[in-house]
Amino acid sequence: MQVAMRHSKQQLKTTKYQAIRTLTDRRRFLRGMGMSLALPMLESFDVPCLQASTVSTPVKRLVCVGTYLGFHQADFFPKQTGKTYDMPYVLEPLVSFRDQFSVFSGLDHRGRNGHEGWQAWLSGSATGSVSMDQLVAEHVGHHTRYASLQLTCGTPPDAARLSFSKEGVPLPMIGRPSVLFQTLFRSDSDRSRMEYVLKGNGSLLDGLLEEATSLKRRVSHRDQGKLDEYLTSLRDVEKMVQKQEAWLERPFPTTDYTLPAFDPVSPDQSLECEMLMYDLMALALGTDSTRVLTFLVPGWSQVFEIDGRRLSAGYHGLSHHGNEARKIADYNLVGREHVKRFSRFLEKLQSYQDPEDRTLLDSTAVVFGSGMGDSNTHDNSNLPVLVAGGGLSHGNHWANDRAASDSRLLGDLMLTLMQRSGMDIDQFAGASRNLNECLS
């Protein structure tokens, strides 16, 4: 069976796989002993999973944008594969970036369906597991004031969660542009107040750690495990507080960007809020306040007015279109509005230069898509996803055949992005193969 993303080179011989497996097993053994050994480049073994340790790592930043109510698959995915595909209707606002993004179809986590399954988009687990953005933040977050920032518009639905800690806990999101602005560009009075709060929190954490450690000696073995998780969380918070205290010695960046007089955070104003959040995300990256961002684009039952016309139903109702042509058309109009704002964000990234004299778009891998495949049926297979920027090779539609024996998972794409960020990782979300051949 032919698969669009299958290697054009001849299949590797069994002996080569055996040799690589031996090397991999030895590397894992060394890791278990507390050591790490990078494999050298072996030109005889042309295997994608080895490419991550030998190629350059142009990706310095990561942005993940997830749209909660998804897209109409037939109007998001190109009908042709390769570089000469016709731009699908929903993605038309991105036409000027055609050579700077790649579309992937047929990828998912083979996991749970429904809104709960949406939560697996960046982690592979609907029941709580560390998300890709947090692994990258752990790798690069020490360079910036904020290891990562999690954003949304207003207050999203309860099941709409994007980022998860190592303990599988959903991370809180900033939903008001004014709060994000203040987080990035604090005044001197804000700095003094923050210093006072951080010192108070430090004292509180000392007390909690002491109490939890003392309690651990007097509880059951099972409760000791729970307390270990609690202590780990407290120590993570303690590290964050200590980092923020150290960064207080450095001045906050300044900007001439002006916010509106009020936050457009009601559901009916969410498209306006979305645009403001994208502006501030570009500023966050441009000022090197953080190198990892996630943005959840929420969806409720709001009725949008687009191009002077009030749509036929609420956004959530349109996502359950029942294959009615009019509802699909209106659902696509909302999808295009999301893509228009995303395109504007890419334009801003292209206008910024990083310290290495590259555009932020060239050094930032941007993932855009949804944890919902077909919202009409709550099917979380064949998830909409594209990757832009990052200095990666782009311009293709890569179609994965889910029924093929060599079918890939969404986790394989995430492995490539983490590897190209310089991370030594070869397994994630049930995947272990990567998609380096598509983006190298």
Reconstruct the topology from this structure.
Layout (H helix, E strand, L loop, with lengths): L13 H19 L15 H4 L9 E7 L5 H4 L24 E5 L9 H4 L13 H9 L8 E3 L25 H8 L3 H29 L4 H27 L22 H17 L5 E6 L7 E2 L2 E2 L4 H5 L5 H27 L8 H4 E6 L15 E5 L7 E3 L10 H10 L16 H4 L1
Care to describe what's here?
The chain has 3 domains: 7-46, no CATH class; 59-177 and 259-439, Alkaline Phosphatase, subunit A (3-Layer(aba) Sandwich), CATH 3.40.720; 186-252. The strands form 2 sheets. Strands 3-4-1-7-8-2-9 form a 7-stranded mixed sheet, sandwiched between helices. The protein has a two-stranded antiparallel sheet with strand order 5-6. It has 14 helices and 9 strands. The protein is globular and about 65 Å long. By secondary structure, it is an alpha/beta fold. Mean pLDDT is 83; it is low at 1-55. The longest helix is centred in the middle third of the chain and has 29 residues, at 188-216. Strand 5 (305-306) and strand 6 (309-310) form a beta hairpin.
Q: Which descriptor suits the 3D outline?
A: globular
Helix-strand topology string: HHEHEHHEHHHHEEEHHHEEEHH
What's the architecture of the largest domain, going by CATH? 3-Layer(aba) Sandwich
Secondary structure tally: strands: 9
What is the helix content?
25-40%
The CATH class of the largest domain: Alpha Beta
The radius of gyration is 23 Å
Number of helices: 14
Strands side by side in the biggest sheet = 3-4-1-7-8-2-9
The biggest sheet amounts to: 7 strands, mixed
Q: Structural class, judged by helices and strands? A: alpha/beta
Task: Quickly count the domains.
Answer: 3
Point out poorly predicted stretches: 1-55
Measured distance between first and last alpha carbons: 24 Å
CATH fold group of the largest domain = Alkaline Phosphatase, subunit A
Strand fraction equals: 5-15%
Task: Provide the residue-averaged pLDDT.
Answer: 83
